[in-house]
Write a structure and sequence with these properties.
By secondary structure, the protein is of the alpha+beta class. It is built from two helices and four strands, in the order αββαββ. A hairpin with a 3-residue loop joins strand 3 (83-89) and strand 4. The mean pLDDT is 83.
């Protein structure tokens, strides 16, 4: 009985902590940053190129890539970008051009 209760508590704890890792897309801190095609930012000011590489120490490549993309968006946001154009995204690296567009 005690062994079964311990397993149930352990499973529930793991599920709850695992679900906390995934962020709610509605609470995305970079939601004001629009991902667009190059022809949509012709009249905008280019702020720079941001690039990142994936953390090779991560256990799962999916999480490493997700974190890498998040860092690219964070750096573009720090530059004051309103729009970004992806140059490339692979499992190892990602790069984007950051733009500020007048509304």
């Amino acid at each position: 009985m005690q062994n079964g209760l311990f397993r149930m508590i352990l499973i529930v704890g793991l599920v709850i902590s695992g679900c906390g890792y995934f962020s709610d897309p509605l609470k995305d801190p970079y939601s004001q940053l629009h991902e667009v095609q190059a022809q949509q930012v012709v009249a905008c000011d280019m702020l720079g190129l941001v690039a990142e590489t994936a953390d090779a120490d991560r256990l799962f490549p999916y999480f490493a890539r997700r974190e890498m993309v998040r860092r690219v968006k964070a750096r573009a946001s720090q530059l004051g970008a309103t729009h970004m154009v992806w140059m490339h995204q692979t499992n190892e690296s990602a790069a984007a051009q950051a733009y500020r567009c007048k509304q």
